[in-house]
Amino acid sequence: MGIIASVASRLSHARHGALIVIANETGLQDVMETGIRMDARLTTELLESIFFPNSPLHDMATIVQGNQIIAASCELPLAESSNLNYSLRNLGTRHRAAIGITEQTDAVSIVVSEETGLISLARRGRLERVAGEAALRDKLNEQLTKSAQPIVGSAENFISTSTQD
Question: Could you give the domains of the chain?
């Protein structure tokens, strides 16, 4: 199971909110500058600890690129699109931010609701609920391989069948 899918599933079961942005070709430098620069190897333990409630980096987004956590506690733009398939009024800030970054960039966002434990994936300004770890792994594989421009680093960094490095 991939690191991101595994962590999202664990956070979902614990009802710990999370917002993970997978950077693609569009630069996210402006977004990264709003947070804490990390440049750390992507591991299950580190990613899960970032989103532990009340930790200093818990709020806002974590940016992942390749097999690196680039930055944490990053502020994202909120969704503004009027052609969404749902009402923004029904979404919390974390979900609106997950959509917002994908409206402005080619990034993919994964959001875990701390209220419901539901996992969602945002891409191209659209939000889709995902039913657990295996489904998220499949969706990430689908989204990352269908991308017109390849994700920086290989898709296996996100969806590999091993969590050991």
Answer: 3-158 (3.40.1700.10)
